[in-house]
UniProtKB/TrEMBL annotation:
It comes from Gemmatimonas groenlandica. Residues 1-21 form the signal peptide. This is Carboxypeptidase regulatory-like domain-containing protein. Keywords: Signal.
């Protein structure tokens, strides 16, 4: 009865190592990828003056040609989009009372298992009255 438990423990340990990036890429030891979806773009959204997080009430989109994806809230100061989708994006963030934030040529590249994520800092300036 001890053997199945130790085999299971070993399998869990190897899975954890692979998830943390400890897997080798040699032909005799192929890379094992997990099934999670990673955001290609994360946007940290803060007030430019106070650095207060604004993502909860801000809205935004990313665009790559005809592809458009809404930024979804993932933390108090962060929204994300373009899950597992390489491309060259423009990013737009809007929030009432602030100037719009726009940037372009945000390149998300394909990695071995997931996209290579890009973080875009969006420091929003208060709108002029």
């Amino acid at each position: 009865m001890t053997r199945p438990i130790s085999m299971l423990s070993g399998l869990l340990f190897l899975t954890a190592l692979c998830t943390l990036g400890a897997c080798s890429s040699s032909p005799s030891d192929p890379i094992v990828c997990d099934a999670s979806a990673r955001a290609g773009i994360t946007v940290t959204i803060k007030d430019a003056e106070t650095m207060a997080p604004l993502a909860a009430t801000a809205r935004g989109v990313v665009r790559d040609g005809a592809y458009v994806d809404s930024l979804i809230l993932v933390a108090s100061d962060t929204r994300a989009a373009a899950f597992e989708r390489p491309g060259t994006y423009s990013v737009e963030v809007r929030l009432t009372g602030y100037q719009n934030f726009n940037t372009s040529n945000v390149r998300v590249t394909a990695g071995t298992c997931h996209v290579n994520a890009v973080v875009v800092p969006a420091l929003l300036l208060k709108a002029r009255s």
